[in-house]
Amino acid sequence: MDSSPHDHGADGTGGTPPAAHRSEVTLSVDGKPHTLLIDHRRVLLDLLREDLDLTGAKKGCDHGQCGACTVLVDGRRVNSCLQLAVSLDGCEVLTVEGLADGDRLHPLQRAFLDRDAFQCGYCTPGQLCSAVGVLAEAAAGHPSHVTGPAAPPGRPVALDAAEIRERLSGNLCRCGAYPHIVEAVRDVAP
């Protein structure tokens, strides 16, 4: 069983919560199984950054408004700053650290580099994870607010610039690299 190197209470005091407020949870993070004793109030972002030393997902607003903490849970995009870790027993979590295959970058990572789709880079891990989710959602035929009403249900949705902008609208970039981010996602979209 992995034990937390930092047995923090959710309030950051460092105090250990009573056993009644902790549960053992087993989850896979970037393909590696972990069994942890988790405070019921601990969010996934803090577990990733502080307990598993995966610092790619960033704590931006800590209110689910900026998307800097976006990761994939069972293939779906989540704001890890809002997701209670205890609710993820048996789930698969994919972070930006898990996108590459060894030294081979994920196609979106390569496209972000090729298109210069970042400036300071703070939002980039969340943008990348969100973009991976966008590609999967569109391929599965999930419509967005801008998907035309004539689009056949259940069929893949073509990702033009408007679709990409709408689907990534929950991920903010304070540097304003949006045009290059959209181009990078278009490069990878089928």
Task: Explain what the structure shows.
Keywords: Iron, Metal-binding, Oxidoreductase. With 190 residues, the protein is α+β, with helices and mostly antiparallel strands. It has 2 domains: 80 residues, Beta-grasp domain (Ubiquitin-like (UB roll)); 82 residues, DNA polymerase, domain 1 (Orthogonal Bundle), CATH 1.10.150. It is 26% helix and 14% strand. α2 crosses α5. The longest helix is centred in the C-terminal third of the chain and has 16 residues. The chain is globular and about 55 Å long.
The gist of it:
This protein is 26% helix and 14% strand.
Keywords:
five-stranded mixed β-sheet, oxidoreductase, disordered N terminus, 190 residues, globular, Ubiquitin-like (UB roll), DNA polymerase, domain 1, 2 domains, alpha+beta
Architecture of the largest domain, CATH level 2? Answer: Orthogonal Bundle
The class by helix and strand makeup works out as: alpha+beta
The parts where pLDDT drops under 50 for at least 5 residues are 1-11
Order of helices and strands: EEHEEEHHHH
Please report the number of helical segments. 5
What is the helix content?
A: 25-40%
What is the CA-atom radius of gyration, in angstroms? 18 Å
Domain 2Fe-2S ferredoxin-type: 23-99
Protein name: Oxidoreductase
Pfam families: Fer2, Fer2_2
Keywords: Iron, Metal-binding, Oxidoreductase
